[in-house]
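PROTEIN DESIGN WORKSHEET
SECTION A - STRUCTURE
LENGTH: 638
TOKENS:
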């Protein structure tokens, strides 16, 4: 760049000097040509003045008319100044011309002073009244002819000088044009060479860098520039490649972190949705296997008899061998990664499975596994199991794998703890609901076998007493009759209460007749659609009955309804119950009274769900789903 710039500047300087000299010569030649023209013009003006002097004097001499004296007088007045101008201009052109100009000026002045003025003066004074014009005319013509001859010689010489000046100017112009053309060609050649060099050394690398930078911005982090340039461009290429490598490394690290966080969010979402532990196990094994680029992932639960039960497993798509089957048990005896984790309760790794002797270790060795990393699964402070990532690669898994596994094992522990808590809560709810139902049955039985029977016996005794009342005791007979009627009313109320506690028709006939009887006793019209053709589990029937009873009672008392619809179906081994009214709405399980809260507890104790909605903003619809099989207790603890 410096050399090329110096050469270009030197060429421009030389070209400028040459052009300046040529232009100066051209300007000098043009100046001389211009002065020559001025001299010729001055000579012509002086010649015209002499001619006006001759013609004016001659006309006055011949005619004695003073009209001819006006141009003569003007020419006489202008002659000295014009003669001086002519002499000055001639002196600036050439020394010989200056001498010739002096001769012409002296001859013109002599003609004016020695001939023309005396002639006009003599004629004016009348001193030559008889003077004949012929001799005067001859003298004047002689003098003018001599001047004309001098003028002709001066003009001829001046025109020769002008021609020479013009030739010199043309020569200088051609020389300047030639020099300008040579300088232009040299400049263009140098510019082309300089442009070619800049294109090769600067433009192409910079354009390549811009294209690769655009590729880099689009995410193509593998682009690299060839490090072939010199100077600052070479530094740019090396810096670009360093930046690209750094971006690629950072992108890989960020992508790995993003993938890990996305996997953790997916697992955490499963845990938050209260998914089953086995679903969490399978998801964790798959996510962790993809994150760690492992070949196999196994999650095992430690058993009391030094056995481990596989609760979750995964294998990569490239592996043809199957992962350990879920539910299979493996011995922990011998040298193994699982034994080390169980003994220490800390993460561990095994880099040589050729000497592994445990059940899982032997399985891994036969599948070509070379190394494994394990992390303990801890549930509420106790060691529950282990999660192991196996790889068949030559190189062992990188450092920090165990730390990346800890977050997943914590989520597994949380899922197990949540499942155990939900199982305990469900069992507790089921025990409470069962105890409540048993209490209702006992109260209903006690009322039926005790109070109701005694009331019936007492009514019969009073009727007997009424028949033996003597005639004339009408007041006593009426009081006994009134008492019997009152006892009958109390008995009916008591029977109604006992049917509400646990209707006998439910125990004898099932949901169909029980719900129909409930609808007949309701204070509003109830439409029934009962698609049920068999008896169900006792707890399920009781729950469905009380849900319908509570929903109908709540709608009648609080919702200002005109119609209640009840639809009961069996869908996918589950009871689907829908209770809908057209009232003002507002009933929400968990937010309403104790009745709806009790229904929610009863449904969830059976592993079901209850939802409330207000379609169209009016009325209330309760959607209940209860599995036909009772909820089982947890099987995920040791």
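SECTION B - SEQUENCE
RESIDUE ASSIGNMENT:
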């Amino acid at each position: 760049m410096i050399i090329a710039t110096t050469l270009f500047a030197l060429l421009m300087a030389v070209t400028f000097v040459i052009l300046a000299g040529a232009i100066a010569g051209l300007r000098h030649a043009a100046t001389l040509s211009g002065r020559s023209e001025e001299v010729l013009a001055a000579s012509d003006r002086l010649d015209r003045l002499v001619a006006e002097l001759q013609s004016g004097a001659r006309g006055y001499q011949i005619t004695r008319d003073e009209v001819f004296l006006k141009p003569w007088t003007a020419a006489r007045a202008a002659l000295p100044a014009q003669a001086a101008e002519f002499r000055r201009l001639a002196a600036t052109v050439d020394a010989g011309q200056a001498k010739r100009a002096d001769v012409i000026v002296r001859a013109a002045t002599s003609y004016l002073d020695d001939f023309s003025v005396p002639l006009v003066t003599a004629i004016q004074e009348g001193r030559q009244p008889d003077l004949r014009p012929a001799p005067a005319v001859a003298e004047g013509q002689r003098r003018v002819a001599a001047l004309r001859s001098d003028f002709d010689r001066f003009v001829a010489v001046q025109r020769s000088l002008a021609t020479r000046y013009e030739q010199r100017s043309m020569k200088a112009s051609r020389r300047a044009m030639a020099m300008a053309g040579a300088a232009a060609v040299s400049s263009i050649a140098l510019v082309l060479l300089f442009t070619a060099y800049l294109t090769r050394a600067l433009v192409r690398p910079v354009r390549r860098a811009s294209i690769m930078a655009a590729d880099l911005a689009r995410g193509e982090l593998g682009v690299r520039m060839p490090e072939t340039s010199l100077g600052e461009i070479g530094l740019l290429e090396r810096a670009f490649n360093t930046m690209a490598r750094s971006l690629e490394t950072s992108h890989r690290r960020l992508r790995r972190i993003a993938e890990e966080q996305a996997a953790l969010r997916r697992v955490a979402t499963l845990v938050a949705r209260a998914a089953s532990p086995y679903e969490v196990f399978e998801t964790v094994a798959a996510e962790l296997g993809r994150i760690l680029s492992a070949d196999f992932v196994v999650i095992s639960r430690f058993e009391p008899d030094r056995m481990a039960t596989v609760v979750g497993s995964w294998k990569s798509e490239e592996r043809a061998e199957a992962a350990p089957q879920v539910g299979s048990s493996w011995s922990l005896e011998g040298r193994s990664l699982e034994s080390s984790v169980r003994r220490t309760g800390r993460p561990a790794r095994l880099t040589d499975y050729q000497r592994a002797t445990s059940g899982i270790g032997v399985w891994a060795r036969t599948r070509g596994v070379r190394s494994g990393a394990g992390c303990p699964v801890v549930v509420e402070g106790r060691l529950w199991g282990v999660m192991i990532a196996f790889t068949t690669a030559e190189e062992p898994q990188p450092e920090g794998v165990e730390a990346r596994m800890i977050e997943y094992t914590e989520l597994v522990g949380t899922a197990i703890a949540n499942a155990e808590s939900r199982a305990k809560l469900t069992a507790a709810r089921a025990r409470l609901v069962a105890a409540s139902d048993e209490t209702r049955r006992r109260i209903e039985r006690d009322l039926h076998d005790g109070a109701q029977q005694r009331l019936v016996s007492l009514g019969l005794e009073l009727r007997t007493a009424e028949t033996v009342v003597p005639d004339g005791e009408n007041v006593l007979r009426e009081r006994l009759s009134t008492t019997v009627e009152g006892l009958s009313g109390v008995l009916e109320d008591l029977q109604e209460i006992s049917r509400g506690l646990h209707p006998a028709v439910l125990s004898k006939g099932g949901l169909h007749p029980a719900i129909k009887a409930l609808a007949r006793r309701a204070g509003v019209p109830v439409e029934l659609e009962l698609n049920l053709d068999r008896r169900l589990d006792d707890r399920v029937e009781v729950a469905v009955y009380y849900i319908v009873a509570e929903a109908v009672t709540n709608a009648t008392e609080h919702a200002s309804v005109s119609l209640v619809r009840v639809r009961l179906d069996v869908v996918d081994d589950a009871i689907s119950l829908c209770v809908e009214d057209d009232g003002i709405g507002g009933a929400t399980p968990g937010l309403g009274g104790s009745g709806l809260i009790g229904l929610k507890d009863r449904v969830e104790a059976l592993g079901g769900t209850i939802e409330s909605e207000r379609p169209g903003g009016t009325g209330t619809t309760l959607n209940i789903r209860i599995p036909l099989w009772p909820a089982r207790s947890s099987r995920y603890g040791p």
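SECTION C - NOTES
Residues 133-217 form the longest helix (85 residues).
The chain has three domains: 2-192, 270-416, 509-638.
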